[in-house]
Write a structure and sequence with these properties.
single chain; about 250 residues; mainly alpha; two-stranded antiparallel sheet; two-stranded parallel sheet; about 65% helix; elongated
């Protein structure tokens, strides 16, 4: 895709089936597109933030000094949110895992509740009678999928709690008593909802920038100011929460 102030234009597609998509392969096709358009008409190349794309971008910068490679802001922010909300316990990521693994548990709880409700027609019927909104089935490729799911859960809090303490739920002969009890304990747990609120609060600045960048218009000139402001807002929420937690303890 070629993009300028007037909009975007589809240039061509490449059938890469069976090819090794290494940095040389990526750089070769980038180079062909640059030559076709004219290197004097190209300012930068934007790709996702994959290692192979970055390496290919560096090769292009070496060959065309006037052109620079930039990672996609939306993809970068989505990777950051993924590392926060679904962090992996690896040697390189141990610090993030120690700080953020509790968020994965909250997300797992929400997924468990959603799957339990949608897994039976009678439970879905009860859910619908207490809620005007639907439970979302977020695709794994969706940006910020954990945040999207938790935002919907927060909107459904009142209806979910009313359902779980209702006569209908109490009289329902659950096919899995243990799961039903676990769901009830989670949905009535104030600390669980406080954690949901905290996750949504400190990720909100990141999510807002992601949404503003993920649109069909030129936004690169807004990135730098928004980026600094985003980091400051995240820090403010986290510091306020840490101070409050220390006072409570």
């Amino acid at each position: 895709m070629a993009i300028n102030e007037s909009g975007k234009m589809f240039l061509k597609w490449v059938n890469a089936s069976g090819d090794l998509k290494d940095k040389d392969f990526m750089a070769r096709h980038m180079r062909d597109a640059i030559v076709e358009v004219g290197s004097n008409n190209v300012v930068q190349i934007i790709t996702d933030n994959a290692t192979v794309c970055k390496a290919a971008g560096m090769l292009i910068e070496l060959e065309f000094p006037s052109i620079y490679w930039t990672p996609c802001v939306v993809h970068t922010l989505n990777l950051a949110l993924k590392n926060i909300c679904a962090t992996k316990n690896t040697k390189k990521n141990s610090v993030a895992y120690n700080q953020c693994s509790w968020i994965s548990q909250i997300a797992d709880d929400a997924n468990f509740i959603k799957n339990f409700i949608v897994g039976h027609s009678l439970r879905i019927s009860m859910f619908n009678s207490f809620n005007s909104l639907k439970l979302l089935s977020v695709a794994s490729i969706r940006f910020a999928l954990t945040i999207v799911m938790l935002k919907r859960f927060r909107s459904l809090k009142k209806g979910l709690q009313e359902m779980i303490i209702s006569d209908e739920w109490s009289s329902y002969k659950q096919d899995n008593v243990a799961k039903a009890q676990s769901e009830k304990e989670t949905l009535l747990n104030d600390n669980w909802w406080m954690n949901v609120d905290y996750i949504l609060a400190f990720t909100a600045p990141i999510y807002d920038v992601l949404r503003k960048m993920d649109m069909d218009m030129a936004t690169l000139h807004l990135v730098y100011e928004m980026w600094d402001s985003m980091i400051e807002k995240v820090r403010k929420v986290i510091f306020q929460h840490e101070r409050k937690t220390k006072v409570e303890h």
